[in-house]
Design a protein that fits this description.
The chain is α/β, with parallel strands linked by helices and 167 residues long. Helix content is 47%, strand content 15%. The protein contains five helices and four strands, in the order βαβαβαβαα. The protein has a four-stranded parallel beta sheet with strand order 2-1-3-4, with helices on both faces. α3 (89-106) links the parallel β3 and β4. α1 crosses α4. The longest helix is centred in the last third of the chain and has 22 residues, at 145-166. The site of FE2/S2 (inorganic) cluster has 13 residues, from β3 and α3.
Length: 167
Amino acid sequence: MIRPESKDKPDAPAAWQPEIIAFCCNYCAYAAADLAGARRMQYPPNIRVIHLPCTGKLAMEYVLEAFEKGIDGILVAGCLEGGCHFQEGNLRARKRTDKVRAMLDEIGIDGRRLLMVNLSAAMAPTFVERVNEIVNTVRSLGPNPLKAADSRAKCARESAHEGAVSE
Ligand code: FES
């Protein structure tokens, strides 16, 4: 269960760079990302692309688990509405991401960290725009509060351990 310790925005270290996962369906979205690469279009290197057969295969448990493990933002990229190769996978993914976004708001992580986009295979510029959008949004929000809480807990554990060793 995700429970941030504080709703306050954590302080971002000066050199902090957000870590973002892009879940791309293997058809249009991945093709758009690939085309962006082939055209040498520049976008921030903060994105790690993970292939999915279809965004409809993205269980929201994976999204929540990624946030729980400290990822700062997630982009879900699927085919255009009406263009999903598995009929309604992207529509289901849209409903799920909307629900998870509301959940993230409720628990203090901020739903703006999760973005869904629909692309055709030719929409490389849109892919790049949306990557820039999520990276900038997440940069302005700061690190995932769960990551900050985890590193504070780690520091506290290390201090307690050092104290115990020096006694
Ligand atoms: Fe692309 Fe379903 S195949 S979203």
